[in-house]
Design a protein that fits this description.
The protein is an all-beta fold. Helix content is about 0%, strand content about 55%. It has no helices and eight strands. A hairpin with an 8-residue loop joins strand 5 (about 65-75) and strand 6.
Length: about 140
């Protein structure tokens, strides 16, 4: 079982629309809910996670703050240029608490793109992003 969420597990954030030195995108995959990535306040916000090889992905676990609507897309080519939609989800408002979402995706991909269309405030944050799946060996 491949588990991104403890120091990245070999995955990396290859693009993020917001990048604050104090709250970098890599904080999403460092395994801690104490650190986080935050947006700059405009929507949509997006980030792309790359795996370096084809993955059989079952689900995405997300610990976030103030996200109202999120989309997950996949790319199954070597370069992250063409994505297709997997799932869209409205997240409930949690009044100052972290949002914990388990999003089933069941797909094969080399990249996942996450698009945050709207939030409950000007800023959103992702504290922990975990991808459950297995590496496919060709």
């Amino acid at each position: 079982m491949f588990d991104v969420g403890h120091r990245g597990g070999g995955a990396s954030i290859v693009l993020a629309t917001s990048n604050d030195r104090k709250y970098p995108p890599e904080n999403m995959i460092d395994g801690s809910e104490e650190t986080f990535w935050t947006s700059t306040g405009l929507y949509p916000q997006e980030f792309i996670m790359g795996f370096g090889h084809m993955m059989d992905i079952q689900r995405v676990n997300l610990s976030s703050y103030n996200i109202r609507h999120i989309q997950v897309e996949k790319c199954d080519t070597q370069d992250p240029t063409s994505f297709e939609p997997l799932v869209e989800k409205d997240l409930p408002q949690t009044d100052g608490q972290l949002q914990h979402e388990d999003i089933e995706v069941r797909t094969q991909a080399t990249y996942l793109r996450f698009i945050i269309d709207s939030g409950y405030d000007h800023f959103v944050a992702i504290h922990k992003l975990n991808i459950a799946g297995n590496a496919l060996h060709g």
